[in-house]
Amino acid sequence: MLLLYRNENKETNKIDMPKKSDFQEQLYFLVFHKWKYIVVILRSKFYKKPINKIINKVVYIAREKDKDWIFGAKVRRLSRYSSLNAEAYYHNKLRHLPDADGYYYIYQNYFCRCLRSTPSIVSKKNVVMFTHPNWSKKYSKTHVVWCLNKADYVICLNSEVKAYLTRIGVKPNILVVMHIATSPSFFYRHERGTGHIGFCSSFHPRKNPDLILDLVKNMPHRTFCLIGRNWENYDRFEELSVLPNFTYYNNVPYESYPDLYNKIDVFVSPSLLEGGPVPVLEAMMSNCVPVASKTGFGPDIITHGENGFLFDVDASYQEVVPFIEKAFLLKTDVRETVLQYTWENCSKKIDDLFLN
């Protein structure tokens, strides 16, 4: 995992932008983007935030298109369980933000965009969730780090992310490690015994699609399902989709996830790079046994051999298959091991950040 972070999310750089030196990247940001923040810069220079300002209203921000996806579910639940006067706000262009004393951004790039669209937020309390490095031409490392340093707090989903952000220039005193949450009532416990194996993610090269294909092809005695969207963009999707032991649940409503997880005994997360991944926690709350790559908060919430299994991010399917078979033999009540990771507890911690 550390190797992936040191390489600045190699696959994203390869897809979205040519590799630049730090100087070139800083120059590009200065010429093409920093001028867009001129009002933010002036406000930061001449306006001092009042100490111990009373927080009367907090807004949790996502895009309209996130409403039926995981980001939308997160802002709804976090705002719902807040002890403050909180609400969720959705806007695809992240403009026209409601006036509030504090704002929570579910993704780091959203904060950058909101700084441009509503510069006055720089004088408010801002809490940003950093999911994972995802650099592009528009949102380069230099660009995002500059913006994050305008926030009051940046939530890191695991300790590796905190170390990485510190290394690339985010102020250490604003970084907070907080594993994201899920709902123990929405995701309910089930008795394992179906023999099914599941995956859950939208398509992206960092989700390690070739390993998914290799597992399905080489475990014909097991039944697999994939919950997600955009997998038709995978260049070998046709090869995967015609396998007789594979079912794809394409872009299904988030409300159907609990019932789908409860058809699964073993949940596999093969990602090369993650901040979470949240589906691992959801599956564990549903009493599925996780078999996950060592990225994100997987190593923080999974104890190898006790409530799941971990494998290296560069593992082959031959190395992962034995862990999947061992997972079917595990008798642990997996749900009991993650009951602390609730929206209520997470929202309370975020409230504390706004009030601190």
Brief account:
The protein is of the alpha/beta class. It is built from 15 helices and 12 strands.
Layout of strands and helices, then pairs:
Blueprint lengths: L1 H5 L3 H7 L5 H11 L5 H9 L11 E5 L7 H11 L5 E5 L11 E4 L2 H10 L7 E6 L10 H8 L4 E4 L2 H10 L6 E3 L18 E7 L6 H10 L4 E7 L7 H5 L4 E5 L6 H5 L4 E4 L8 H8 L3 E5 L4 H4 L7 E3 L5 H11 L15 H13 L1
Parallel strand pairs: 1-2, 1-3, 3-4, 4-5, 5-6, 7-8, 7-10, 8-9, 10-11, 11-12
Helix pairs in contact: 6-7, 9-14
Main attributes of the structure:
single chain, 356 residues, alpha/beta, 36% helix, disordered N terminus
Mean pLDDT: 90
Distance between the termini: 32 Å
- Main sheet summary: 6 strands, parallel
Please provide the count of β strands. Answer: 12
Would you tell me the structural class of the helices and strands? alpha/beta
- Looking across the biggest beta sheet, what order are the strands in? 2-1-3-4-5-6
- Quote the beta fraction: 15-25%
Number of helices: 15
Helix content: 25-40%
Low-pLDDT sequence parts:
1-18
- Gyration radius, rounded: 21 Å
Shape: globular
**SSE pattern:** HHHHEHEEHEHEHEEHEHEHEHEHEHH
